Write the structure tokens for this entry.
Amino acid sequence: MKGKRLISTLLIAILGALIGLFVYTRFLDRDKLMTHDEKANKDLKENVVYTSLVPQSGVNDFTYAADKTVHAVVHVKTKTKVSSNFSNPLYEFFYGPEAATPREVRGYGSGVIVTSDGYIVTNNHVIEDADEVEVTLNDKRNFNAEVVGRDPSTDIAVLRIKANDLPYIRFGDSDALRLGEWVLAVGNPFNLTSTVTAGIVSAMGRSLGLLNNQYRIESFIQTDAALNPGNSGGALVNTQGELVGITTAIISPSGAYAGNSFAVPTSIVKKVYEDIKQYGEVQRGLMGVNITDVNEEIAKDQNLKEINGVYLADVTEDGAAKAAGLQAKDVIIALNGEPVKTTADLQEKINRFRPGDKVTVTYLRKGREDNKTVVLRNIEGTTGVVAPGSLSTTVFGANFAPLTANDKAQYNISSGVRITSISDGRFRDLGFSKGTVIVSVNGQKVNSAADIRKVTGDEKKLTSVEGFTTDGTYFKYETRR
């Protein structure tokens, strides 16, 4: 009996010891668990970054960029007097003859201060044809603005106001942008000042066919940052608050924002701004070629391994490309060692250079790769500095674009220009309209507005014009002697 009690006592003691050991280890594990949780909380706190006015890597915080840039984006307001082209006797009977007098049209947009002494970059279409330009700063001060220069080819214009110690935005590197990178658009949509929207870079190097200028350069940054009327000329900035583009346009079936917006990259803007500021005119280096993107048909015809590059549809007789030895049907694949995939890509890269600059062109001819050194020329065919006004594409009230290789084949001609728009002037008086093809002026072949200006003595003498009407009918106009 005593043996059984002893065994029971021992079993109870052992069981108690086991329970004690179990409880002890559980508490120890709990302490360890609590220590682990506390450490995790500590690590979490170390990774939490509060919103502040310093740039932070890896955090989608836009307050730094917004605060740094919003004060340097201005409201641009324009006034333009528009005269009526017709008279309505009934309207004048009720409202008087003053009803036919010129009326004032107001416009608005945005601009970006880029220097502390008042230089402002905006879109050309914001201030084009304006009689007065007024700038309102973010602090509500108003200034009359001087138009320093315009470049319809890139839709960029430069203004200046008389002020100092202004907040401004530094130029950033648009080439460094990557797809998916966050950007902010700062502007004045619908006259709502100091508006900031955010989005990502959706695409680069977009060409939309928005500009009718003969020497147009389109290589837009596409984003999904919301833009609306009034944003034109505003800032597209990166998260460091650097200017990477000038907001310009949207694609929309309704006229309001529909998910896509476009900006001129600073790789173009900065060059235009610096040229206008220094020379009063953009010093644009030209190759003297008609180009198009390589497509599947061209790639097959030229024995290309990839559907990439820029196809030379035609080479101007007195142009820089021909002088360097480039020929029609050559395919440009690189410029100064940097790959070239599209016409927009090539135009944007060439735009960085001035007349007289040398560039190395890598091209394919019948599938064989080679290089040529091209000395770029100006609109006048030389390598000198062009004077202010020399790049204007308006002659006798008309604007022009060069003919494509298909156009020349259609009309069986080797030269010519097409009227892209026309207003009051000598050519409208002669009955010319948009789409008219002009082959020669004063008996000399023309390939640009500059050619027409040159052969007419800067619009002083017009004796003959030869070309084709919009329906393809040949005509020749001659003045009576």
